[in-house]
Amino acid sequence: MSVDGRPxxxxxxxxxxxxxxxxxxxxxxxxxxxxxxxxxxxxxGTDTFDGGTVSDVLAAAExxxxxxxxxxxxxxxxxxxxxxxxxxxxxxxTDEVAxxxxxxxxxx
Length: 108
Hints:
Blueprint: E1 2-3, E2 6-7, E3 17-18, E4 21-22, E5 31-34, H1 36-42, E6 46-48, H2 54-65, H3 67-73, E7 77-80, E8 83-84, E9 96-100
Parallel strand pairs: 5-9
Antiparallel strand pairs: 1-2, 3-4, 5-6, 7-8, 7-9
Helix pairs in contact: 1-3, 2-3
């Protein structure tokens, strides 16, 4: 099952309590996709975060995942919707922030 094409199993409940009910804000926040060592450090491949800029989203991710993730993040490239991003780039509810660590390999 999914919401807006996103599997429910990857959604975080960032809702607020309202009369004993929780409201999920999955559709209101950017989605983050983590790859390779960033995924390993975070322990998850997809998550959502409040934030109006790339910097806000990354800071929230660092707070949630801790120092191991911060170490990996310092070596990563960040893309928004398939394009290279800068820290003060705005993000909205339909945006996808990708965290791409450096990779090695290839053939000789």
